[in-house]
Write a structure and sequence with these properties.
Blueprint: H1 2-12, H2 16-38, H3 41-57, H4 68-95, H5 101-105, H6 115-125, H7 129-139, H8 145-152, H9 156-174
Helix pairs in contact: 1-2, 2-3, 2-4, 3-4, 7-9, 8-9
């Protein structure tokens, strides 16, 4: 955490190398998390870039109260959550007859070569975003339920329920498929 504070201090001073170090340190974990949540490599990469651009543009006002890792995880999750809301709004627009041909013709790219990982990611895509988010933040992000509850602005019991329901749904989806 002290190293992250030093990097932020250097970044505020205009040190571009500090930004590169922060990016290099956290990009792989954040990209993996974004890909797990979105199930689309291009969108995950876009989300990662947008989060780091926002971070760099607002570093002058930024105050780190916890770990930079958890802060960036929170940023990527919130960014994806906002994208999801926008997408849901667009889906409602399309349902009303305003179909956008570009969206309807877009194809998804596989994000993992390994069949087991690809299957797991496909299974995750089939469960609701809130449950998927809790599972990924807990298992992949190593966040405690308390931290996830704070991030989602909800009760710990709700987070635990989402986690358990999500795992139950994953088990049900995977029945009959090889994992």
């Amino acid at each position: 955490m002290l190293a992250d504070n030093l990097l932020i201090w250097r970044l505020r001073g205009g040190d571009r190398q500090a930004f590169r170090q922060i990016y290099k340190k956290y990009k792989d974990e954040l990209l993996t998390m974004a890909m797990s949540l979105l199930n689309e490599a291009d969108e995950a990469e876009d989300a990662l870039r947008e989060v780091f651009v926002l971070f760099a543009n607002n570093v002058a006002r930024f105050r780190l109260y916890g770990s930079l890792r958890n802060y960036l995880i929170s940023c990527i999750v919130n960014h994806i959550r906002n994208r999801y809301r926008q997408k849901m709004y667009l889906v409602e627009e399309v349902d009303r007859g305003k179909q956008d041909e570009a969206d309807s013709q877009r194809t998804e790219q596989p994000i993992a070569e390994n069949e087991k990982i690809h299957s797991l990611i496909e299974f995750l895509a089939e469960i609701p975003l809130q449950q998927r988010e809790v599972i990924i933040l807990h298992l992949q992000g190593n966040l405690k339920f308390r931290e996830i509850a704070e991030m989602q602005d909800t009760q710990i019991s709700t987070v635990r329920a989402r986690y358990n329901y999500g795992l139950d749904k994953l088990r049900a989806i995977s029945d009959g498929r090889i994992i």
